[in-house]
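Pipeline run #58 for the internal structure catalog. This entry was flagged by the ingest filter as a single-chain record with no existing model, so it goes straight to prediction. Upstream metadata was stripped on purpose; only the residue string is passed forward. Reviewer on rotation: M.T. Logging verbosity set to normal.
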Amino acid sequence: MAFELPNLPYSQNALAAQGMCQETLELHHGKHHQAYVTALNGFVEKDPALQGKSLDEIVKLSHGKADMAGVFNNAGQHWNHILFWQCMSPSGGGIPGKLEAKITSDLGSVAAFKDAFKAAGVSQFGSGWAWLVLGSDGKLKVTKTPNGSNPLATGEGKVLLGCDVWEHSYYLDFRNRRPDYLTNWLDKLANYDFAAAQL
C-alpha cells in the first residue's frame, strides 16, 4: 500500500491572517511534502524489506543507517509534515489551562517555554525542526533535530508540537527572519489544543 499525501486540516488560505500565506502552503504541502511521499514510495517499491511496514517502522528501521539515508530523509520528512499540519490552526495561539499548567510546572512558565522553543529553532543550523516533547520521565522538554530527523527516531519522547524551520516554511512570509517566523508561529499559528490532546 503506497503512502499518500494527507489533506490539510484547513483550506490553503486559512492561515494567511496568522502569517502563513496561501502560496507558502501550496508550495510546502503540494510540492515539498508531496515530493517526500513520492520519493519514499519509490524506495519502498524497490526494497521488499520495507514493503508492508508502517511509516513509524520505516523511520525507526532506517535511522542512523548510512545506506538507508535516502529512505530515512523522506520517511522522516513525511512523518514530520503529517504532524506539522496538525500543529497549526487558523485559531492558534491560545494555550488550554491543563497544558499551560504542565508547561509552567516543567519549563518554568509559558514565556520560558516560548523562549526555549524559539532558541531551539533559531539555533538549528541549516534545515531542521524544533519540538515540544513529553519525555519518558513524564516531563515536557524542548528539543531540536537536523534535516528530516525527529523525536520518534531519536527516542526523545512523544511529540506534542513540531515546527518546521526549513527555509521553505517561512521564506515567502518572513524572508530570512527565522526568529520572527518562530515568534509568530508560537503566538498565532501553534495549535495548542492539538498539543494538549497529544499530552
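catalog note: Strands lie at 128-134, 140-146, 158-164.
catalog note: Residues 97-198 form a domain with the minor pseudopilin epsh fold fold (CATH 3.55.40.20).
status: ready for reviewer M.T.
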